[in-house]
Structures are given as C-alpha cells and as structure tokens.
Amino acid sequence: MKKILILFFIVTSLTMADYLDTWDELLQKYASAGEKDGVTLVVVDYRGLKQDLKFEKLLKEVRVVEIKKIEGDELKAFWINTYNIGAVKMIVDNYPIDGIKDAGSVFKSVWNKEIIEVGDKIYSLGEIENKILRRTGDELIHFAIVCASVSCPDLKMSGYRGEELDRQLLEQKLKFMEEKNKGIYREGDIVYLSKIFKWYKEDFGNIREYLGISEDKKIKYLDYNWGLNGLNL
C-alpha cells in the first residue's frame, strides 16, 4: 500500500513538472520585454505561439493535472498559471485580434467563455478568477493573473511554483506598482492608480491604508488600455 501511495505522488509530481517545464519553455521563447503606448511591459509573440505545437502539448499537460491531489500554495500556483495559459489561449484561438475583449460577444463576455480544460471540466477565465482564486483571500493574485492587455500586470516570464509563490507574488506586486502609467504614480497632490484597485476594492480593503496614501492626497484612476500586449501589433 505504501509503495502504491509513493508511486501515486511521484506520478502527480511528474505531471506538475511536465506542464511547468513546457510553460517555462514557451514563455522564454515567446515573451519578452517591450513597450507599447508609452508603457513598459512584457509583450507576447502570439503569432509564433499559435504555430508552435508545444502550446497544444502544454494544454494536454494542464488537462491531466490531478488537482484533487494538490493543495495550498501549489494549488494556488497551478490556478494562477492555468488562468494565464487560458488568457493566452483566448488570444491564440482568435488571433489576429486587437484585444482580448474582442474574443467575446454581445451574448457572452470573454470572461464567461469556457476556454481551458482541467480534468473533465472546461473553465472560463471568470470562473477561475472569481470562484477559485479570489476565494483564497489573497489579494496578490491580482498582480499575477493577466488579461493579455497593455494595462494589466505583466505576464511573468516563468511559471508560478508553490514553493516560491510568496516571493513571486510580492515581486509581481512591486513590479506592477512601480510602472508609471500602469500601476501607481504620484504627481503633486494626486495619486494615480490602476483601475484594478477600484474594480477589486473589496479584496484590497481600505486602499489608502493598503498603498500608504495619506488623506490629503487625491486619488484618480488611470484609463485602462485594453490593447493587446502582442509583439506583432
């Protein structure tokens, strides 16, 4: 019995390693530092990715991960990666496209479209975000999941891993907040913030306390640029 359990956990670990290794390889090949509309960001070569058979391999590896057998930070990291892979897939499936919202329709927003399969279920981006990740109570997930747009947090150029997750999330938060015209910046008595802090204010709590903004400062929210974070557009 003990041998069976050990074998089971080895197989599960290998499955996790498979998808993470493939995701890392694709990110290193198709994601790079760039600039669009005056914003420094990570851009993605969706055209190249669409033609790479390893992306289909990645989707198959994600599908067979046994999520019932992982927990804690490892599970959270898996769902962050899966959300990001799903967002990339949404673009790849509809490429060329000006922005992720264009993949939706009048009848169903892009966030409610089923896009990525795990086990025997196909998940939408909205379901992963609102019914899984936000329920962890960790507001830092908002700096890690991406919407393939200029104003969203950057796609990290390596996968999230359970044993490194706390550090990775804090790094993403700091990186996002330091990006002028995207995260947060001060100009005189005005503090400009990403609309992410407005849309998910219930997750961040008192935004002035969270970001250390004094009461004598006025808060304004930046326009959100939904343009694609694509290399070739």
TrEMBL record:
Keywords noted in UniProt: Coiled coil
Lineage top rank: taxon: Bacteria
Domain DUF547: 69-176
Presence of the UniProt keyword Coiled coil in the record: yes
InterPro entries: DUF547
Pfam families: DUF547 (PF04784)
Coiled-coil spans in chain: 160-187
Coiled coil in keyword set: yes
The protein's name in its UniProt record: DUF547 domain-containing protein
Organism in which the protein naturally occurs: Psychrilyobacter piezotolerans
